Input
Amino acid sequence: MTTTRFAPSPTGWLHIGNLRAALFNYAIARQNGGTFILRIDDTDQERSEDAYIQGIKDDLTWLGITWDRVEHQSARMPQYLDAKQRLIDMGRLYECFETPVELDLKRKKQLNMGKPPVYDRAALNLSDAEKDALRAERGGSHWRFKLDHTRIEWADGIIGDISIDAASVSDPVLFKNDGQILYTLASVVDDTEFGITDVVRGSDHVTNTATQIQIIEALGGTVPRFAHHSLLTGPQGEALSKRLGTLALRDLRENGIAAEAVLSLMARLGSSDPVELRASIDEVVAGFDIGKFGSAPTKFDAEDLWPLTARHLGTLDHTAVTETLTAAGVPTDLAAAFWHAVRDNISKLDDVAEWWALFRDGATPVVADEDADFIAQAFDLLGAPPYAAETWGQWTAAAKEASGRKGKSLFMPLRLAVTGRARGPEMADVMPLLQKKPTL
Output
C-alpha cells in the first residue's frame, strides 16, 4: 500500500515552499488509496512550539489536506537511540570531537589544496584513551555515520537517474554534541518503521537522500521511491528564502487569498501543464501527475494568486458566502442579487463590505467639469428608490433625450456619478441595490 508523509518542523509557520511537499505527497497517497501521515519533526525542543503545530494543522485544514494519523518525533526517542546503538554495534556510527572552529579550519585547508571539503575521518584513528581525554576536556561529542565509499544510485521520480559518489560526501552527523538527534537519522527510522513507500521533497535534499539510502540499508529497511521537486524562486529568479516570512500560508489566508487559488497554482507550477482553476482538493488530486514536473528552479509570484482568487469567487453561489454577506450587513432578501452583481468585480471577500457600503450609503460622485450640468439635469430626471432592473434603461433614455448625448459620453459620466467608479457591475444590476437616490 502507498504510504507518504509530510514532515514539517514546528519552528515557524508553514510557507508556500513547504506546501509543495505537503501537496505532492498527499496527492500520491490519495490517488493510490493509500495513507498520508502528518509527521511533526519536533526533535528541536528549544525551537519547537505548540502554536506552530496547531498552525500547521490549521493551514492544511484550510486547504482541504487531511491526514490519516499524526506522529511526533519527540515521542520516539527510544526508537532513535535503539537505532544509534545498532549502528554503533555494526561499526557504522563513530564518535567525533572536533569543534566547529576546527572543522572550519579543516575545510579551508582542503579547499586551499584544491580538494573537496569532505570530513577526513580523523576520529576513527583515536584510541580509547584519547577519546576519554577528549570527553573530559570538551564535555561532549558528536556521532557520524560511516558511509560506504561506493556510488549511491536511484531513479528519481522527477530528476531521473541520479548517481552520487559517496566518497565526495562527508560522513553525516547524526547526533550533535548535546545529544540532539538530527533529521537524517530520525527521518530514516520513521520512514522505515512507518512503511513509507514514496517521499517527495525539495531538490536541496538530494545529498541527504544519498546518505539516507545507505542508512536505510544498514538498518535493514526498504528504500522508498524518491522524487525531488524544483525549488521556488522569486519572479525575477531571486532566492525566495529571503521572502518566505511574507509568504506564510496563514498570512495569505488572512489577506484574502482563496485556498482554491493556492492549490490550483501550486499543483501545476513547475510542470508542463498549464495552471487551471480547480474547485477543490479532490479536483487537484485527480489532475496531478508528478511525472510532468521538471527539476529547473521554478519562478513563483504571489501576485498570480489574486486573479485565481477572483476567478474562484466568480464561480460561487451566494449561499457559499452567506457568512461574509451577513457580516457586511447585506439584507437577506438582497443577498442573491447583490452577490450576482459584485462577484465578478471583487478580488477578495473583504471587498464585499465596501461594495455594500456604496449601495447602502451612496458613493462619492466623480464628475468632470464638462459633465456637471449634464449630471445635475440627469439626477433631476431620476425618481426615488426603490429602483428596478429596468430603471437604468429608462433613466438613460430620458437623459439622452434631454441632453442629446449618446454612447460613452452618456453612460460613463452617469456610472461615475452613481458609483464613483469607472468599472463595476452592470448598471442594470446596480440600480435595484441602491438604497438612496444618488445626489451630487
Residues 318-433 form one domain.
